[in-house]
Description:
Elements: E1 4-10, H1 18-29, E2 33-39, H2 45-51, E3 58-61, E4 75-76, H3 78-83, E5 88-92, E6 95-99, H4 102-112, E7 120-124, H5 128-139, E8 143-148, H6 153-167, E9 172-175, E10 183-188, H7 205-208, E11 211-216, H8 225-232, E12 236-239, H9 240-256, H10 262-278
Parallel strand pairs: 1-2, 1-3, 4-6, 7-8, 7-10, 8-9, 10-11, 11-12
Antiparallel strand pairs: 3-5, 5-6
Helix pairs in contact: 1-9, 1-10, 4-9, 9-10
Amino acid sequence: MSLKKYAVIGHPMGHTMSPFIHKRLFELSGIEAQYGVFDIAPEDLENQYKTVLSKLDGFNITIPHKQRIIPLLQNLDPKAKMYGSVNTVAFGENGSCGYTTDPDGFLKALEAENIAPAGRVVILGCGGVARTMAYEAALKNADLSFAVRKEDTEICKALCKEIKYTLDKDVSFCELNQIEGDIDLLVNATPIGMYPKMDAQPVEDKVLSKTKSLFDAVYNPLETQLIKKAKAMGCKALGGMSMLVWQAVVAHEIWDNSKYDKQDIDKLCLDAAAELRNK
């Protein structure tokens, strides 16, 4: 059996967790594969795709190529088309196909901890990560709302209108300090609490006291101040490393139909966090 070859592309490529995570996933599935890192400037993407990337078995994509890669591909998965973003490419009988695994990574991370994106879902922030999570929650018919900084209200209004137009779902919003009422799932889609400012948290403790489940997209540290506080109050809480690993799992499901045990993925999340600390 010939050695399969994969990679992650982006620019600039500093430290990335992709090789560590994907190499472990190949080991778990018993597939012999190489996984490289390609730093490709935007102006070189088309040439590199034709001469290098198209000869791989598949590849992952990070900033700034998630939209730029689309015109070079022959096919798009429906979810990638809906989001207008690609982070995984596979090659098959019908040529190249682009996928986005972030949405399913989010859902699988929640599912692994028996957390449902249902009931009242409040998302902190309104950037790209928040948009992905909001669409998935809206598709699950959640009672969805955003909480944002005052300076982001116009951006949030536009996102609410977009979701209403695309999915015919009403979405509300408020400022971060105006959150009230019981929450079934609170999602932090902001960088607040990320290393090195690990003492910061985006909402007050009183919000957590009325929250049933929490997902924090921050993955460095593995447990943010927000997660620690939530757990201390009896809230089921989950960090962003799980989503990072599960979206990689989805890529492997696309590439080679691999299946994984939850215990192995839980351990990979812990090992990835340790690797991140070492770096």
